[in-house]
Fold this protein.
Amino acid sequence: MTPAIRIGPLVIPSEFAVLLVAAAVGLLAARLLNRQRSEANELSTALWRAMLVGLLVARLGFVWQYREHYLPDPIKILDLRDGGWAGLAGLAAVWGYVLFATVRRHAPRAALLGAVALASVVWVGGGRWLAPTPQAQPELAALAVQRIDGAPAAMSAFHGKPTVINLWASWCPPCRREMPAFAKAQAANPDVNFVFLNQGEAPPDVAQFLAQHAPALRNVLLDPAGEASRKLSNRGLPATLFLDAQGRLVDLRVGELSTASLAQRLEAIQKADGG
């Protein structure tokens, strides 16, 4: 299952799409389950507050877990583009608020609990359905990639260690913004392969960009036809694949990563390698 949904020029990460669908299902279910129309406003208010509380706790839970990455520049806490969320903490907060609302605020109990239960099932089930299959990706081995000097290269060379493959282009603003985080992570994690697979740009353009903005990056390869992004991320950039040492796909993120959200995913592939 692709990790992104493309609507014209807009590419929406699938996990965000699942969240929107879950919220819509919850609101619709509440409307259908609520037989006391006089309590419709109170029910709607309780649901919106529960969602806001859940999102706030999910973000703060992630920030606290990776606080060392935010302390040097706390304003980055507000940058939600990095996809840093503690989902289970947020879900627990939603249920905590809902129980509070039914007991203390006398919100319509059956409709509220039913709506949140259905939304939770959609969110959890959708997340599991969209999770990358933990197996080697044959698309990678078949890619015709090359080095900046034009020499042929093979993705199979990066095997035996956890591997991060970043699909990027120099014209892509979020690709440029996340590059310092990748450069820092590559220098700090010699036990992980980092591969920067440029999508569809000419070698001189890539070389010029790297010389000016990321001279320390290693393992920069070219995918002239942009096959990787077409097959794996619905042409959404940036996109990052996280593979364990056996070449199995553990995670695939479409969208910008921060040092914190990158660290979270690095931990996952390193744990997969260890166990």
Notes: The beta strands are 4-7, 10-13, 145-147, 152-153, 163-168, 193-199, 220-223, 239-243, 249-254.
